[in-house]
Structures are given as structure tokens and as C-alpha cells.
Amino acid sequence: MRQRDRGKQSKEYPRLTHPLVRDEKGGPLRRATWEEALEKATEGFRRIKAEHGPDAFGMFSCARATNEMNYVAQKFTRVIMGTHNVDSCNRTCHAPSVAGLSAAFGSGGGTSSYEEVEATDLIVMWGSNARFAHPIFFQHVLRGIRNGARMYAVDPRRTSTAEWAESWLGLNVGTDIPLAHAIGREIIHAGLANHAFIERATSGFEDYKAEVEPWTLSAAEKVTGVPAEAIRDLAHAYATAERAQLCWTLGITEHHNGTDNVRALINLSLLTGHVGRYGAGLQPLRGQNNVQGGGDMGAIPDRLPGFQNVLDPETREKFEAAWGVTLEPRHGRNLTAMFEAMESRELRTVYCIGENPAQSEADTGQAVERMQMLEHLVVQDIFLTKTAELADVVLPATAAWCETDGTTTNSERRVQRVRKAVNPPGEAREDIDIICDIAARLGHEWKFADSEAVWDELRSVSPNHYGMTYDRLTEHQGIQWPCPSTEKLEPTYMHGRLWETDPDKRGMPAPFGIVKHDPPVDLTDEEYPLRLTTGRRLDSYNTGVQSGSYASPLRRGEYVELCPEDAELYGVSPDEEVRVTSRRGSVVAPVWIDPGLRPGLAFMTMHFPDEVDTNQLTIESNCPIAGTAEFKASAIRIEKLPVAAAVRS
Amino acid sequence: MTAVPLDPPRRLVEFTLDGEPARVAEGATILDACRAAGKDIPTLCQGETLEPKNACRACVVEVEGARTLAPACSRKAEPGMTVSTDTERARHSRKIVLELLASATDLSTTPRAAEWIKEYGAKPDRFGADAATMNEQPKIDNDLYVRDYDKCILCYKCVDACGEQWQNSFAISVAGRGFDARISTEHDAPLTDSACVYCGNCIEVCPTGALSFKSEFDMREAGTWDEDRQTETTTVCAYCGVGCNLTLHVQDNEIVKVSSPLDNPVTHGNLCIKGRFGYQHVGGGNTAGA
């Protein structure tokens, strides 16, 4: 597979340098002054709140911007607009990890640190092609392997991550729960469960044991396609390792039952005691630079800053006193629910900061239609994205990571300083500055001298961040939360409390998640016989807006990737353009042959939506708990093009 | 049963360095001790994030009782040893090393090389003008990297960074033996037909500028590369959630190079293609109109 088409470049997006407004629906965007654009943005928010109430407003905050910006954005939503309708694209990726981990342990972060992967005995990479999607994390994995750890890869595709594995478990898409349950059952039946830990630190073991009982190795082999012996081998390796790390990515979460998948994996750590110790833990690998931080800052509809529960009266009281407002004792709408509320006209205005839902949501056709129903859409971004093209007001912002100061939080809960290195182009302004300007026009004069002032306000309301002054963040090259003290640092791993002998110190036991197998919603049949799954490549990123601009020698544009057997079955050859059709849409893409795929399994990325809009194929079928869509499993068919029409549509 | 033992706490080692008492943690090298004591020992093949290769011999010191000079970068400090860094013998050896390297290779972009040559009184031209071993044009076969092997001193750092010490891509290795030895891709193919994933971690460790980013190479060619006018600001990468620290080298408000702090707990100085090169979307040159 060495022939690479070096001519393939994705569409280049130019930077926005001045505000744009649209005078009437359907009219063109035209250049405007900041004064005019901000006044128009403010007027819409003010009018719609007066006419339709606070909940007609929604904020799409940015998982790519700083913690400080996310704090200000959620404060704007809650204090000025008076609603909890704030969310970000965490909904499209790792919300199930946060939901699952907080249900089990009361905290939504990964439990270990990267360095612990180097000091563990066993690494399970489940639904994660970290070699491509998280290359520098994978260097820690490779160090671990070089140090003597064994690695197992669980993935429908034999990925470049799987190439490093001792054993690759190539399961059928959407059968993670049967596989996890079979591993759990085998551990119990082989007498390898850590009963001392289970008794002291968990609850619900008997129910779990009953739930997994039907999943014998052979039953699981039938459903997952993984040989019974391979399942048994992983079960025994995991249970007998002194320390084990269980890592996952979107292969677990981007399903209609993503939170259940996460719970099924957490169960294995509870069964064996592989959590709460150095080198033993759970690591969801987050997909965006600050998707962890956005949630930590309260830019989600059910949590206040510091990941504190909106429904807890004492927490609300604290924030009401700090902010001088009354907070509604209920959850707001998440991103998915906000899109549904656009259709029912309950949501009438959106302030969208640095997000591109017109291309990143599953079933993009529907997402665009819904956004067009909004009365007032304000988009703040560094590019004129497809979403910005729908807006009434477009505000040019700065690239958070190099044009502003602040912090972001990574997958191991490490809060790190972001620093301004270059000046933004044209009239572009910093996100916080723009939000505060609109806030002032709505009657709230917020005086933040700089990002550190925002951070210090956050520290005053979030005990988990209290100890992280900017000076300390610089001194330690980032600090992991929780960090309640300005004097000391906590261990690199979380939930050590579960190992305390004193029940008071041990706190709430971690409940087993009683979850059931539920196959993908989009069933394969005679008409749509292929299972399509999606993912990332090494050199590209998400909708390609950001990664399309550099001359990567690896970039080869979008393909529909098939195994050699399927290519032969459908009579298609490499580079031949074919029609790919799901129950929702149809695209034309060239064929790529990947021997790492299995018969019946096809793969595409979402990096080149301007050439091939893969998300026209994916299904908007959402996890009821976390709202994440089932990007990983759609049913498709491929067809040869009529000879005359064999050109790119 | 554990396959991977955790490190026990380390003790301190005491020895004599240039007549003064020195104390370093067990496992530390003589070079570590020299740097801690503020001594300036020349190094080329030594890398903070790599295991010592002992290839260049620029850092040799005299250990009392030893027959040969010892490379400070790899020789571990031992209790009670007596080390001298500035003896006539050590200085003479460093001088010869610099003369051999500077006569065979182009050290014009090697940081501090000119300073050391002066300090040690090295005379590389005494071997004549035909001592250069390569005499070839820089290899430019893609838009991100340039390989200029006239500048290569065969220290193997790039091979180690690409191979099992960090990247595990194994795109490059040493080909040929003796005077024909050189760093090469498989079958000397262009980089675009190799296993290269363009992480740039080989460039990060290259001590001479034999490997360079195309952006830097082009600016040097045009005479616009000016490190005195550059600022270095460390921030966090804007791609995935791993949180790699990036040091942005900025000249005239343009990012001209990206590196990562060698002591950073997330990256250990390594990056991937996106973090290393994916900054061009920021550039203001290409801007939207209405």
C-alpha cells in the first residue's frame, strides 16, 4: 500500500479577519464593523430571551478553546441568559466515558497517568487506534512494551496499534459488551476475581455475576466473532497481571449505547482490582485538546465548574452566592437535545463558539436543516466554516492554542499553560474579550484583567482546581486534578481511597454497571450488507478544517476502504470510484484495499467532508445517557458506477 | 507476579571532579555531574532523551587509573573515582575529534562548533580540501523535510529516535560500512516511499542540521533565517487530547519551527506530524473576504 497520491489536498480554509453580518434570512454575509456585529448579536439574544424565555438560548462551547474561555462561556449562559443549555462537541466523542466513569467513581476523568503505562504489566487497547490517533500517548505504550508489558488490541480492524499487540481480538462492530461480559464471566469461573477488593470497594457484584453468566466463551465467540481461546487468554492475562491498564477511545463511545460499553469495561477493573493503584487503571483517550477541560469547566448542561452537580442544592447555593444569581435546579439540554429543540422551535438562538456541527454531527443533512430553522445564529470562529456560512453574525476569533493565554486539560487530567506566541490576523479578537463585550451590552460588566483572573475565579469555586496557580502550573509543567492544596501534589492515579481499610476513608463503593448487549441500530441486510465504521488517520484531524492546510506527504484524500475479499466480491479495484449508499444518504468515493479489514467491514474517515461527506452516511442514533451518536456503525452497500458517469460527483 | 519491577529509590554517589568533591544520584553520568557543576564539555552525539551512543568522542575526560579516555556522556559516576576534564590529554583528543569531523563534514549549522574549534585550537583544513566525504546535494523529496548528508557526522541519533528508543517507525538506518557508511532509508528510496511518518523526531535530535525542516531550510537558503529575531513560546498542541507541549519558534509573527521541551512529562521532546507541522492554518497570509 505504498502508492500515495500526493496531489490530494483538502479544501483550505482562510482565516476570518473581520466580522460579517447577514441583513436578511437568505441574503449574503457582508463585512461589518465590530460595533455593528456585536450590537446585532446582542440584540438577537436579548429579544429572543424576552419573547421566548431563557431556554430558547443555547451555547455551543468549544472543546478546542481554553478552560478560561469555557468557564466564561458557561457563566454567560447561566448568569446572563439564565439557562443550563450549554454543551460542546464532547457530546460527539467521549461524553459516554465521562458519564460511565462518574457513575462508577463519582468523577469523570481517566484514573491513571501516561507514565503509569510505562510501568504496568498489561495494556489493553480497546477500540483505540492510538498509534494513529494519539501517537505520543502510544510512545508511552511502546515504552511499556519495551519494559516488558504485554499489549492486547481489541478492534474490528487490524490497525497499526494492533501490529504491536501480543494478541489482536478482531470483534464484530458493536459487540463490545458480549466480549467484556465473557471476559468477566471467565475471570469469575476461573477463580481469578479479586474477592477482597470486590467485597470492600464495590457494590452490585451478585447482579453482575448473574448478568454475565449467559456469556460463555462459545456464546461470545458466536456473537463477537472472536475465537473463544483468544477471549480466555485475555481474561486470564488481565486477571493475573499485577498491574493492568485498560485504555479506550471512540470505538467504545461512538455507539448508541456508548455509556453501557464504558460501564462494561469499568466492570472488568472492579472485578480484578485494576483501579486506584499506581500502574493499574482506566484511561479514556480524549480526542480534542480540551474536551476534558470543557466539561471540567461546566460547559456541559448537568455540571457546574469543577464538575459539580447542578442538582446538588449546596453546590447551587455556593455558585448562586459567588455569581449573585438564582440557578435553575435542573439539567439543561445537551447538544443532541438542542438540535432536536431547534426542530420543535423551543430553541431559537444559538451562540456557537469554535464548533462546526454542520459537518461534525452524524447525519449532517439533518443538522444543517435544523440550524437553518434558528431565528438567530451567532458563530464565533477562526474560519468561515460550513456552520459559519449559516450564521446571521460571524465574529472572527483567535486561535486559542497560540494566540491567547490560558490553560487546557489533557487526557490524564493535566492542566497545562497555553501561551500567546503570535498576534491574530486582521481584526480578530480573543474569545473571552468578545463574550465579555456582549455580556456588557446585556448589562453585566465583567472585569477580567487577563486569563489568570478568570482562572483564579474558577479556582475559588472549584476545589479540584484550587491548588493550581499559574505559577505552580509553570513550575510543574502542568498539574493533574484533583489538586485541592496549594502546598502539595496528589498521586498520579485516582481513587486510591478504594483500597483504604477504614470504611469511612474508602467512601462510596464503586457500583458494577448492569448492562446488556444491544446490537447496532443500523442493521445490515441484503440491501445494505456491509458494516461501515469510521475513524481517523495519522496526519489528518476531524473535519479537516485545521489539518487541511499543511502539505502532508501522507495525505491521500477520502477512500472507502475494503478488505481484498470484498473488493473481489464486488468486482472493484483500487482507486476505482464507487457509489457508497446507506439508508440516509449516498456519496461517491474511490476504493482502497486494506488487508487489515475483515470481510463485511468497510472503513472511512471524516477528514475530507468537502470532497466526500462521510457523515451523510452515518446514523443519528444516540446514546440515551450521554447523547453520543453511533458514528461507528452504519450499514452500507457499494455499487460500481456506470462507465460514463465515472467521475467525481 | 509482576513482569515490570518499579524503580527503587536512588542513592547518592560521591567522587572527585577536577579536584572538587561532587555528589550525583546513583546512575548519573560524569557529564551530568559536569553540567551540575557548571562545566562546559562539548557534546554532539549525546542527547538528553537518548541512550548514549559513544559515537563522536567530543566529550572525553580522564579517569584516574584508566588506560583510555572515557566518554563523559556514558561513563557512570562511581564512588571514589577521580575525574579530570581539562587535562592536556583530554583537550588534545577533543581537538583532533573536532579537526576530523570539521574536515569531513560541513559543520556550518552545528550550534557552537565554530566556538569549540576556536577554543581547542583545531585546524580542520590541515587535511586538505578533498577531505569532505559526501559532496552531494541536499535531498528534497517532500514538502516537510530536507536531508543534507554533507552535514551528517553519523552520530546515529536520528536512527535511535526513529527506531526502538522512541518512534518505532524504523524508516532510516545505517547503510554501508567504513567510509561508505551513511544514514539511509530502505534501498535509499525517497522518504515518500519509506516507512517515514513525518513526526520530525529525527530532526529534533540532529546535532548538526543535516536533517532540517523545509521551512527552516528555505529560509536559510533565502538568507532570512535569523534566530536572534525569533521568540520561543511553549504552549499546548491544538489537535488530540494527549496534550503535547509545543515550543513555537516565531519570527516576524510567523511560526517558523515547532519543537517540544525535552524534559516534558507528556512528550519527552517528541511530537507527531500534526503537532510538528499542522500549524499552517494559523497563518494570516491567506485571509477571508466577504
Automatic annotation (TrEMBL), chain A:
GO terms for biological process: respiratory electron transport chain. SUPFAM superfamilies: ADC-like (SSF50692), Formate dehydrogenase/DMSO reductase, domains 1-3 (SSF53706). This is Formate dehydrogenase. Residues 1-26 are annotated as: Disordered. It comes from the Bacteria. GO terms for molecular function: iron-sulfur cluster binding; metal ion binding; molybdopterin cofactor binding; NADH dehydrogenase activity. InterPro entries: Asp_de-COase-like_dom_sf (IPR009010), MoPterin_dinucl-bd_dom (IPR006657), Mopterin_OxRdtase (IPR006656), Prok_molybdopt-oxidoreductase (IPR050123). Pfam families: Molybdopterin, Molydop_binding. Residues 15-440 form the Molybdopterin oxidoreductase domain. Keywords: Iron, Iron-sulfur, Metal-binding.
From TrEMBL, chain B:
InterPro entries: 2Fe-2S_ferredoxin-like_sf, 2Fe-2S_ferredoxin-type, 4Fe4S_Fe-S-bd, 4Fe4S_Fe_S_CS, Mopterin_OxRdtase_4Fe-4S_dom, MopterinOxRdtase_cofactor_BS, NADH_UbQ_OxRdtase_ferredoxin, PSI_iron-sulfur_center. The keyword Metal-binding applies. It comes from the Bacteria. The keyword DNA damage does not apply. One of its GO terms (molecular function) is metal ion binding. Residues 11-89 form the 2Fe-2S ferredoxin-type domain. Residues 143-162, 188-216 form the 4Fe-4S ferredoxin-type domain. Keywords: 4Fe-4S, Iron, Iron-sulfur, Metal-binding, Repeat. This is NADH dehydrogenase.
